[in-house]
Amino acid sequence: MHMLHSVLPKPDVLIAGAGIIGLSLALELDARGAKVVVLERDTALAHASSRAAGMLAQNDPHNRPELGSLSALSIQLYPDFLARIKKLGDAEVPLHTTHALQALDDKRVTSLDPLSAEELRGHAPFLAPGDLQFGRLLEHSLDPRELCAALLLAVRASGVVLHEGTTFESVAEREAGGLCVKTSRGDISPGKMIHTQGPWAGAPVRPVKGQMLLVKLPPSLPLREVVRGAGIYIVPRTSGERAGCAVIGASVEHAGFDEQTNAATEASLRARAALLLPALGDAATAPTISTWAGLRPGTPDDLPLLGSLAAEHQFIAAGHYRNGILLAPATARVMADVVEGKSPELSLQAFAPARFS
Ligand SMILES: Cc1cc2nc3c(=O)[nH]c(=O)nc-3n(C[C@H](O)[C@H](O)[C@H](O)COP(=O)(O)OP(=O)(O)OC[C@H]3O[C@@H](n4cnc5c(N)ncnc54)[C@H](O)[C@@H]3O)c2cc1C
């Protein structure tokens, strides 16, 4: 294995962490002409980014209001983001759903008009009978595994240099300017460095575990829209190899860096899903295909850390919690501006990295 300094000794920007945030930002900076190196301790995109449900949940009433403008920018940028990925890597990322049916089962959900019984029968005749009301949101979803596979192809076809199996260890300022970064495979001297290690970015970012399961939908449940209630969502896959299946998620657990699944949590997710879609309660009718867990990068206020750090030439983009797939294109745009010393098009004040210190 070669040492790093023999490859690209002085990149303009070094990015630590090849999740969706690090790689989206790497592509954006590459498109702007920067020489970019990305370090990944494991394999790229192997953690939360490929284990998410894939809702672009811009209108989720449980989102913090401070996310509104960043989410809106991301939705606006998504078509160009996917087009850039397609152009570079030649892989299409299909959207699987266009709408979400949101249960109005929580007092925080005040902004949605309930559908009439007739409208509801038209959209989802198989929803649980009873007095639960639903609103309908224009909101897309994609399969993060398809997105991650295509993004990786795009990165490999771009000028970005990606080193997998390479751990970022420490960083210090160089007297001659720029930084000296120690990695598990030698030192490297970038002009600037961005921390995108997700839940491993260090305090105040911390892991919030989410368990999920993929089930085969029975013929009686031809789901084409996301169905969401308090603490539960069902996200159908409508094309590709997982067509006819749905993701049920997700638990919210403060369990450190544990990525194991367990049968009790799977059963409780099923039970909650069955309150909305009764056919999902029975594993014989809707068999489990796989289960997995991922670590969301959480923060004390559920908002990401976006901006420069106190140490010179260093930046952070981490803590996207439940919305990193949604927020990746906008994060790449605004963070590339910050790294280039330009004012981003929207205020990042709510996301200031120093707000907890
Ligand atoms: C169950 C679940 C469901 C979700 N559903 C959705 C959803 O529907 N919609 C949505 O928008 N978001 C969703 N999310 C959230 C989304 O997945 C995350 O916000 C997003 O993936 C975070 O991306 P990231 O790049 O910051 O982190 P990660 O994907 O965790 O990537 C960080 C990378 O950094 C690497 N790394 C760590 N330390 C080092 C080091 N020292 N040196 C080098 N590399 C290092 C890690 O190996 C990892 O690959 C979900 C998450 C989970 C867990």
Salient structural properties:
alpha/beta, FAD/NAD(P)-binding domain, D-Amino Acid Oxidase, Chain A, domain 2, six-stranded mixed beta sheet, 7 helices, binds flavin-adenine dinucleotide
Q: Explain this structure to me?
A:
- A hairpin with a 2-residue loop joins strand 11 (226-229) and strand 12.
- Helix 1 packs across helix 7.
- The model has no long low-confidence stretch (mean pLDDT 94).
- 25% of the residues lie in helices and 26% in strands.
- The strands form 3 sheets. It has a 7-stranded mixed sheet. A 6-stranded mixed sheet has the order 5-2-1-9-16-15, with helices on one face.
- The chain folds into 2 domains: 4-83 and 146-204 and 300-356, FAD/NAD(P)-binding domain (3-Layer(bba) Sandwich); 99-139 and 206-297, 2-Layer Sandwich (D-Amino Acid Oxidase, Chain A, domain 2), CATH 3.30.9.
- The protein is elongated.
- The two termini are 40 Å apart.
- It has 357 residues and is of the alpha/beta class.
- Bound molecules: flavin-adenine dinucleotide.
- Flavin-adenine dinucleotide binds next to helix 1, helix 2, strand 10, strand 14 and helix 7.
